[in-house]
Amino acid sequence: MTVKCGTLHRIRPYLKPINSEQLLGAGDHNMDSISAVYLMFGLILLLASWIQLLFVSFRDDFSWGLTSLFAPPLSYLYAFFCWEKAQSSILMAAGGWLLILFSL
Q: Tens of pLDDT along 56-88?
């Protein structure tokens, strides 16, 4: 198959660059600054609660510590079984989820 010289000139008008307004739907997805702050602090709280839960689970049992490290959702299952030891990290995670929900 051979391409003629004039072929590219016929295709070029269809290859228009896309700007960000076209990509995002003309500004429909704007996030308020307070929502961004709530989201960021919520994510920081979730990360801090998981790290705190890692320390607690490793101190209690090595196998639970490894489970918490490699399967983070299961670390909260451990926290509900050992509520006395991991109560602060669960409350911190709940606060993080509340901030994330407020940001939406």
A: 888 888 888 888 888 878 888 888 888 888 888
Question: Is there a domain that residue 33 lies in?
Answer: yes
Give the Cα-Cα-Cα angle 85, 91, 94 (nearest 5 degrees). 140
Number of domains in the chain: 1
Would 51 be classed as within a structural domain?
yes
The dihedral built from the CA positions of residue 47, 48, 49 and 54, taken in this order, carries a sign that is: positive
The answer as to whether 18 is a domain residue is no
CA 54/CA 45 separation, integer angstroms? 14
Can you give the residue range of the structural domain that contains 75?
28-103
The 8-class DSSP code of residue 64 comes to: H
State the pTM of this model: 0.63
